[in-house]
Amino acid sequence: SRSSASLFKVSKEQALRNARQLYEKERADQKSHIHMIVIGHVDAGKSTLMGHLLYDTGNVSQRVMHKHEQESKKLGKQSFMYAWVLDETGEERARGITMDVGQSRIETKTKIVTLLDAPGHKDFIPNMISGATQADVALLVVDATRGEFESGFELGGQTREHAILVRSLGVNQLGVIINKLDTVGWSQERFTEIVTKLKSFLKQAGFKESDVSFTPCSGLTGENLTKNAQESALTSWYSGPHLLDVIENFKIPERAIDRPLRMSVSDIYKGTGSGFCISGRVETGVLCLNDKVLVGASREQAQVKSLTMNEFPQTSVFAGDQVSVTLPALDINNVTVGCIISDPQTPIPVTTRFQARIIVFNVKVPITMGFPVLLHHQSLIEPAVVCKLTALIHKSTGEVVKKKPRCLGNNSCALVELETSRPICIERYADFKELGRVMLRVAGVTIAAGMVTKIR
Length: 456
Ligand code: GDP
Known about the structure:
It is built from 11 helices and 23 strands. The protein is α+β, with helices and mostly antiparallel strands. The strands form 4 sheets. The chain has an 8-stranded antiparallel beta sheet with strand order 11-10-16-7-8-15-12-13, with no helix packed on it. Strands 2-3-1-4-5-6 form a 6-stranded mixed beta sheet, sandwiched between helices. The longest helix has 17 residues, at 188-204. The protein binds guanosine-5'-diphosphate (GDP).
């Protein structure tokens, strides 16, 4: 039998080996997926850089690029032609599924990279957070222009804020792009000056030196994006990787296929015949045809009657796959968007109260005890209350700064307890990275994001 449920009866080790073998047999020839977010101060050149990269990697047609070139010329804004590539993708996306963060894809030799682009607007932190909760790796773009790096890096600038935020959401690999180096004549001195400042800051923010790289670029001229440096002013001192290499060199986060099954439900519809068709993402583990699973907080048991991916029938699907599943004879009240389908042998915790380590943004009124929020967890949106302010903690070191604070203002980092009125499925970040990140929103604005640290 290929059912993982029956495999688990064999022995756990055997089952895990089987899962991995099955995966390797079916997927070995395929490219790995990685989600990348691009962060940095407004005007650092993020859109230009990514637009140019998409173009150079053949992900934007000549025709579309020509159109942007013509239009930007007409408006006398030719320097924006690459940035528009991303805007268009964003708009096209917006017409389909609503998405705060525009998505594009880049294929490298070994990877399919989904760009979670964070458009460079002032109010983009709330948008960026939803991208960051899905990110595996990040590119931090800084503007090398004299004065510009400094204003982005000073207090109030977004360089620090973004770096701390992605780190708090568990992103540990960071490619720092020292951009617009054309504006300083490709000065090595300027490059080194910026690298030195960022290195010590990033270390404090909790990044390991070996997980951070620094790359000189110009998103506008295209220097060092997909080809080795050409500019003699740059080649005289730099022969390291270009941007595409940096992306190619990111370590692939392990597909957690040898963990217990967790599938997050993003849509439910009436299938043909009895029962329901449920679509979502397998976050961890393997799901096979005929497997028994537990659905949502009620933990009702159901059996997988059909399994499809991109409309093609499958016998098994794996962590990272976006799939549709038919579960017959299921009580519709027990399955909701945002709930989690889990392995009967190791079910997901169900709770109404948990502790999270959060970082606070954009609050008009400081967060106090009893503060109502909308909790976002994967596709789940659930009313919740901040029921305890346990401690204020240091953003970078995680040390407790103050126990039982009375309120939490912008830019604070804290341990809090959250309570929902209905039970929800949730995991600790330490146990299941995929299911341990949360966001708190109020009136459509993200005010905090963080990781689940304890489940009551
Ligand atoms: P974002 O806000 O970070 O997305 O930045 P944009 O991509 O919109 O770029 C902001 C401005 O910087 C635009 O006028 C760009 O043309 C300009 N720019 C972007 N990259 C470069 C670069 O590498 N060199 C120079 N000189 N200008 C750039």
